[in-house]
Amino acid sequence: MSRSTARRIAYRLLALASFGLGVIGAFLPLMPTTCFMLVAVWAGSKGSPRFAAWIRRHPRFGPPLTAWERQRAIPRHAKRLAMLMLVFSIGALVISPLSGVIKLCVIVSLLGLALWIGTRPAPREAIPVYTIISPTLSPRVMPPISRRL
Asked: What is the Cβ-side half-sphere exposure of residue 149, based on CA atoms within 13 angstroms?
């Protein structure tokens, strides 16, 4: 097996694992979804462009991903949910038995994260998604090795 084939398989496996973790995160409240989906799209674009395009077209996962990729924007509902989870996390830290220094460091980090999330813009308009027939992902444009998915 050549090095490029092994690398492509590794990217595919990373994309599938990240996608699976992202799907699990959609149902479990304490597990993130979007960060795993971002990794899945990134790895998928290197190992399986068709899989990455499918994630971007997905009705639930696609719009936030394309908003982030194109505008570095976070939808308002996602910001509200993230802020709510950060508040719950800070509340749990306050009543936890950890030492004061650790609590303070984590709370300051979470507040910094909240500030960063709050300063991200909301998407400006509906984001067009990638399709498998777009010129950049068309099998006619992709190298022959990428056609076999």
From this structure: 22
pLDDT tens, position by position, 65-77: 888 888 888 888 8
C-beta separation of 148 from 49 below 8 A: no
* Rounded Cα–Cα distance for residues 122 and 52 (Å): 23
Tens-place pLDDT, residues 17-63: 999 998 888 887 767 777 788 889 989 888 888 988 888 888 888 88
DSSP alpha helix (H) spans, 58-98: 62-71, 76-94
Residue whose pair of structure tokens reads 């398989």 in the numeric block? 9
Domain residue spans of the chain? 1-73+124-149, 75-122
DSSP secondary structure letter of residue 75:
-
